[in-house]
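Handout, tutorial session.
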Amino acid sequence: MKTLIFNACIVNEGRKFNGYVVIDDEFIHEVGEGMPSVVAEDTTKIDAEGALLLPGVIDTHVHFREPGLTHKASIATESAAAVAGGVTSFLDMPNTAPAATTVEVVDLKKSIAAETSLANYGFFIGATNSNIDQLLAADYTSIPGVKLFMGSSTGNMLVDRREALDRLFSEFKGVIAVHAEDEATIAENREKIINQYGEDAPVAMHSQFRSREACMRSSQLAVEIARKYDSRLHILHISTADELSMLASGPLEGKRITAETCPHYLIFTAEDLNAERGYLRKCNPAIKEASDRKALAEALASDLIDVVATDHAPHLFADKQGSLFKAASGMPGVKFSLPLMLDMTLQSGALTVEQVVEKMAHNPAQLYGIDHRGFIRSGYYADLVLVAQTESKKITDADVNSHVGSADAQQLASPCDWTPYSGLHLSHRVLTTFVNGRVAFDGQYVIPANRNARALQFNAK
């Protein structure tokens, strides 16, 4: 079956033009300007009415909580939110229960996704001080890379032995995706805060607890080791202006050290943790100052930062309550990331739509060698999203599960029914999301009957 999307403002590979895309089954058959000269009679026609047609977002940093933590979320519920937000593929992190530090657990997660995911999927394998042999033996045509925690984390995934770090960086040839926060600095900060405020210190002190010094020291160590061994290092969720000095500007191709930031570091500041419901914005690394937010936005525009991902990390609302050391860290964001980033393009001197597409689709595909995705090209999978600029609308917690209003999708409602972005306004709305050529979200509801997700394939380096 063929589908023609026409009268679309196509944004792809640095260009923006009025044109069309022909989908043939799972793949993009043709891309062109204007209208195609011939349209088969049995083709389904979609008039985009001037809406943006973008390659589907590839969110390279999510925590979908399965297996073991499904009281918070699941691959089914969070992939539904993903496609409702224009995210057609995701890479999930290993801190589940059990932790994905073995190929067997990675395979378990893939088997769950094969049955339940509405978006294409891939799963990182996690490093520990003692599993380097297994990491080196894994098949990286089906695993995007190794996740390395150089700071405290859930499970047994804090790698703090220098010999383990040296071996991983010297022998592993793929992408090492690093959560960089120095554990010793965090421990020192904790002791100081407890001495001054006790165990019930306010959440607003989070940026002093998970401080910029913790980020800087850990990132410096990661960069130092990566340069020593010419490793392929990707620094996750950059939150400080300080860390930008370690990065190089320019196209992603050819870089050995790359970096990611997240929408919440571009929107909020540490002051927002003082605001009403500020505890919902507690995450690791901590959100920093307004000067950091400004520097991160400029670094995206200048190509110092290569990727925007969400670090989507759902928790029950009750888990987010309490003091600094009690309230859970992490926030959901996968449904709102693309509209939020597109709204940033409306600000004077900010990112362009072309850059948003680069950071959220093109570069993620190139960084991890994702096969035939991330671009609107003939022969590529038809992972596409139509987005329109609309009248500004306030985000509410009720919007979190609004995409599962149909009776056949009720089981896809996320237990995490809140958003840190509640109260903000959006001027972009996802109209349609295509996953491998099928409509996964129709602008109102997700469509479980059209589930057509695939395990992502990676061009292992």
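The second record follows below. Compare its token runs with those of the first.
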Amino acid sequence: MGAISGVFEFSISNGYGHRFLQLLSAIFMLSAGLYIAGWLPRFAYIEKTGAKFWRLIEPFGHKLIPIRTRFHALLFGMIWGWMPCGLVYTALMLATTTGDILKSSLTMLAFGLGTLPAVMGIGIMTQFLTKLSRMPHFESSHDVS
């Protein structure tokens, strides 16, 4: 995204390209916030557009499961990063405004590190609840007398 914005910024002189990208990013982030608040349901079209691309690349991710090597983990993460998600797309828009590949990469790294606790927490809780549901004390008995 940083490379794309760099080309775009270069093609428009006097820094107007960068200003345009910043404005576009601000509008995109505001729209994402309004969507999360339930005030802008049309923002879902962006996720739906990404879903079309996701359907094309998702099978490649499935081929990497179970993940056996770090390289496979890297590839899987790169594919998973395209999952239709308005927050990811908002972070990509923000990364686009940097106009620099390194800054863009650091922006996405910060986003990834910021979401890591929630993503890992969900995985850990899912595993815990699955084990818990298989314990004899928690199995439901449908004995109705």
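Points raised in discussion: The helical segments are 2-11, 16-36, 44-63, 70-80, 86-96, 101-133.
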